[in-house]
Write a structure and sequence with these properties.
Largest sheet: none
Number of helices: 9
Helix content: 55-70%
Radius of gyration: 21 Å
Number of domains: 2
Bound molecules: zinc ion
Order of helices and strands: HHHHHHHHH
Structural class: mainly alpha
Low-confidence stretches: 226-236
Distance between the termini: 56 Å
Number of strands: 0
Shape: globular
Strand content: under 5%
Length: about 250
């Protein structure tokens, strides 16, 4: 066997592990927080999550091609471009790792898009019959129910590592524990842990502001969807408005 293939394969495997971390981080920090550039937040929290919710609305019933599942067309080139210098540097330090890495990054992205599409647009495709796909589809459905859990779509390793992994079983366990505590009279109203330091107070305040901002945008979005003619609120954001109109047309 050509000995150059081994580091390429190992490199590919390492990049797949990194892929889980990357999708977790990007999804959590950019797609769910109104950060600059806002594109990721708009497309994901305001459009994707508002259209695909729990139960029946989790899947796209109609035929056709909804525009609000796949990422922007420039996402893959951007991801590759950002990682090229790192690939080159690693290849300089550990030869024969470049192509394995590049193939892994692009492959991860393509499979991510493919799976996420079939999760929301099930058409009885062969992939939907696999156990691993069914697991991932459930995993992602739970993310659509609990925004702050199950950030990984394709490879939930980072969810496991960072404690954001939930399953139906873990939820059932939590519920049972809560009910047991309630029955025993041990349950108190959940409050924010009283902050011990200034730093913690500031961090909490920042978190709260961000939550309110996100919630505000979601509420504005809902108002817009309910009264499709109240354009005033979104006049400033012509692009989002266009996206929302086409999204609701697709859906209704
Ligand atoms: Zn989704
Ligand atoms: Zn999300």
């Amino acid at each position: 066997m050509n000995m150059e293939i081994v580091p390429q394969v190992l490199s590919g495997m390492a990049w797949v592990l990194y892929g889980s971390l990357f999708e977790w981080y990007w999804h959590k920090e950019w797609m769910h927080k109104p950060r600059v550039p806002r594109e990721a937040f708009r497309g994901h929290t305001l459009v994707h999550h508002q259209i695909y919710k729990v139960g029946e609305s989790y899947v796209f019933e109609e035929t056709g091609h909804p525009q609000h599942i796949l990422l922007k067309p420039y996402a893959l080139p951007a991801i590759v471009l950002v990682h090229l210098p790192i690939l080159f540097l690693i290849n300089y330090l550990i030869p024969h790792t470049f192509w394995g890495g590049l193939i892994a990054i692009s492959g991860y992205f393509v499979v991510y898009e493919y799976c996420h599409w079939h999760m929301h647009v099930p058409r009885g495709h062969r992939i939907e019959k696999f156990r691993w796909f069914k697991y991932l589809a459930k995993h992602h459905e739970l993310h659509h129910r609990y925004f702050q859990k199950n950030f990984c779509v394709l490879f939930p390793l980072a969810d496991l590592v960072f404690g954001t992994l939930i399953t139906e079983e873990s939820l059932a366990k939590q519920k049972a524990a809560r009910e047991a505590a309630l029955a025993a009279g041990k349950l108190t109203t959940p409050t924010l842990a009283s902050p011990t330091s200034r730093q913690e107070q500031r961090r909490n305040a920042r978190k709260l502001r961000q939550m309110q901002k996100t919630q505000g945008l979601i509420e504005e979005f809902s108002t817009y969807r309910v009264k499709n003619n109240s354009k005033r609120r979104f006049r400033k954001d012509a692009r989002l408005q266009k996206e929302l109109v086409s999204a609701s047309k697709d859906r209704e």
